[in-house]
Predict the structure.
Amino acid sequence: MAGIDRMIANALSSEIKKDLDLEILKKVEQELFLHHGMSIKISIEHFEKFSCS
């Protein structure tokens, strides 16, 4: 199942990076890395680690 998750994460990450303004993208990437040590792609693969509360 990890292969499918990786494929989806790659596709979704590419779409996010394509659609976001460069300044916003850099801010999101920076915050993800500083707070969680993850890139956008890795955070998509491990979304269950993020809490909604």
